[in-house]
Amino acid sequence: MTESVGIEEAQQAIIDEFGQLSDWQDRYRKIIKVGRELEGMPEEHKVEGNLVKGCQNRAWLHAKLDGDRVIYMADSEAMIVRGFVALLLRAYSNQTPDDIIATPARFIDELQLGDNISLNRANGLASMVKQIKFYALGFKAILDRQHT
């Protein structure tokens, strides 16, 4: 199994990629392009329990534990939301629960993504980050119990 890139490195790559785009329209287009490239989520995971509360459009987040790594899958009906989700998955999927819990989504603030979208979308983005962290907390508890 190849070692995945750490969360900080993944976030820095996102910051570098989007930091080159100073025009917000270019950033929006890039976010939508990233969303289009996101692998589709299987329909069996698009269930009520996986809906992210607080999103303007329906967005789903599913997580599973693979060894000591959390694997996330996500999708949304809105392309811009799908793009944000894809960026979050780049940073947090295939990471350990401890790393996920400990590492804030700094790329959102550094790129001012929350400042340049509607309040509803910004709240939805924050809800997605919270849900990612919530899953990591649950999986950390499972792993801690296995090691005691």
Short characterization:
The protein has 148 residues and is mainly alpha-helical. It contains six helices and two strands, in the order ααββαααα. The protein is globular and about 50 Å long.
Describe the protein's architecture and organization:
The structure is a single chain. 54% of the residues lie in helices and 11% in strands. It has 148 residues and is mostly helical. The chain has one domain (7-146): Sufe protein. Chain: A, CATH 3.90.1010. The chain has a two-stranded antiparallel sheet. A hairpin with a 2-residue loop joins strand 1 and strand 2. Helix 3 packs parallel to helix 6. It is globular. The mean pLDDT is 92.
CATH class: Alpha Beta
Q: Radius of gyration, rounded?
A: 15 Å
Order of helices and strands: HHEEHHHH
Mean pLDDT: 92
Overall spatial form: globular
Helices, by number, come to 6
Largest sheet geometry: 2 strands, antiparallel
Determine the N-to-C terminus distance. 26 Å
Please tally the β strands and state the result: 2
Low-confidence stretches at least 5 residues in length (pLDDT < 50)?
Answer: none
Strand order of the largest sheet: 1-2
CATH architecture: Alpha-Beta Complex
CATH topology, anyone? Sufe protein. Chain: A
Question: Which range does the strand content fall in?
Answer: 5-15%
Number of domains: 1
- Structural class, from secondary structure content? mainly alpha
- State the share of residues found in helices, binned by percent: 40-55%
